[in-house]
Amino acid sequence: MFSRLKEDVQSVFHRDPAARNTFEVLTNYPGLHALLLHRFAHWLWNLGLKWLARTVSTISRWLTGIEIHPGATIGRRFFIDHGMGVVIGETTVIGDDVTLYQGVTLGGTSWNKGKRHPTLGNGVVVGAGAKILGPFEVGEGAKVGSNSVVTKAVPEGATVVGIPGRVIVKHKDKEGDDARRREMEERMGFDAYGVTDEMPDPVARSVRALLDHMHAVDDRIENMCKALQKVNKDYRNGALPPLDDEDFDCVREEADKHG
Predict the structure, then answer these.
(1) 228 phi and psi angles, rounded to 5 deg
(2) Which helix (H) or strand (E) holds 137?
(3) Residues paired with 107 in a beta bridge
(4) Tell me: the pLDDT tens digits for 204-251?
(5) Residue 100: beta bridge partners?
(6) How far is CA 102 from CA 46, 135, 154, 174, 210, in A?
(7) CA angle (58, 64, 66) in 5-degree steps
């Protein structure tokens, strides 16, 4: 019992840089309180003391703002950061080293008895406000973006964002593509919404695709100009108009809405 408690406290230190000492974690982390109370409620549930288990769960919700059905199965080193508004349904199964942020719902979409809630593999991270609804699996190491709504299975190691949730596939850049894209981004005065491949966003990826296309058009026009100069040595390649950084303020504002 005490070894599991020590493990739970250490998991807080590993995943929350704001945690300063063990006493603070034990007394001021509602996610830890909810987990400890759930273990007691789950034990009562398995003994057949359903009403008492639900009562413990309700008291836990009053104290922590986190609702975990006593029938839910939760693995080791489970961490709920902040926690307010988290809801975990009866048939939910959560693996080891899973992290949830505030406002997450692990819910069902059916009124039928049986498996109705999701199964989260080891190492899954679910962002604030995300909803995972239905009896499917979220693979090990997957990440669900904030406020996403996921209604179908997620592969291992995948990242899901948006409503409805879309799996983001990370494409490998061909040699030199990334350098050319960065050059185009610098010329335009912004960096594709400030979103990297490690933090994918569908809108940002669309902008990156446009940048790739623009770079290809530039190369083609440059080659055409060189060909014209060979045909007519008097041909002069005029300078392109400069790109004003202020022209992209509206793009940045739209990016902030998605970011």
Answers:
(1) -65, -35
(2) strand 137-138
(3) 133
(4) 666 667 777 777 887 888 888 888 777 777 766 666 666 666 666 665
(5) 80, 126
(6) 28, 21, 21, 39, 35
(7) 65
